[in-house]
Amino acid sequence: MLTAAYQPSLFAQGPVSAVSRLDRLRRVQLDDMSWVDRGVGVFEGSDALFRELLERTAWEGHRRLLFDRWVDEPRLHGAMPRLSDAMDEAVSGLRAGLADRYQRDFDGGWAALYRDGSDSVAWHGDSIGRFRGDAVVAVLSVGAERRFGLRPDPKRSRGERSNYAWRLGSGDMVVMGGACQRDWQHAVPKMATAGPRISIQFRSPGWDGVGRASRTPSSRVSEHSSGD
Ligand SMILES: O=C(O)CCC(=O)C(=O)O
Questions:
Q1: Where are the domains of the chain?
Q2: Which atom of ligand 1 has the smallest separation from the CA of 77?
Q3: Report field, pTM of the whole predicted structure over 0.90
Q4: What is the predicted pLDDT for the residue at 160?
Q5: N or C terminus of the chain: which is more exposed, having fewer CB within 10 Å?
Q6: CATH class for domain 19-226?
Q7: Does pLDDT of 129 surpass 90?
Q8: Parallel, antiparallel, or unpaired for β 164-168 and 69-79?
């Protein structure tokens, strides 16, 4: 299934006991309504997480209707699988850390596998935040380095704004918030060569006014099928 060997980065190598370092996130204010918190090495133990996810996830391909024909999405998806006890604890710790930091609940997480450089995801905003200005989507990258692009949504032009292109290495994280899913788009572009990479996405709908974000049982399904 994988056409390029994954070389674990020196930075990401380490004990199987994993820990998250959300204190490494730094905010980039995209405009007055949207922001991204970006961090290098936020999940220590990312090589072990990559290996476990690769082996244990029930990877499946999705098809999308593009204009008038069905096309295979160039990546695979899966719900977060049961991991080893230590890794499950670390991932739960990461989710709890996100909940604490952003004062909202996050879903159980979804994984996407980019098998090589020809796998990608096109410019899109996640459907969870398409009609509201307060969704938070956290993306943890494990495995090979890939580029992660951000640009203002061309359909919602609000004056002069910049494009961004960041390299996400193993253990790096971006957290998109505010109106990022509504007013901005993100993408993982194709590359001439790249090793396999998995992104784990934790999504939170917006504020429900009660004290935590509301949990919508259908958000996983609708988000996943139309998120890109
Ligand atoms: O893999 C990534 O870094 C981004 C994933 C994403 O944008 C999505 O699945 O909606």
A1: 19-226
A2: 9
A3: no
A4: 73
A5: N
A6: mainly beta
A7: no
A8: unpaired
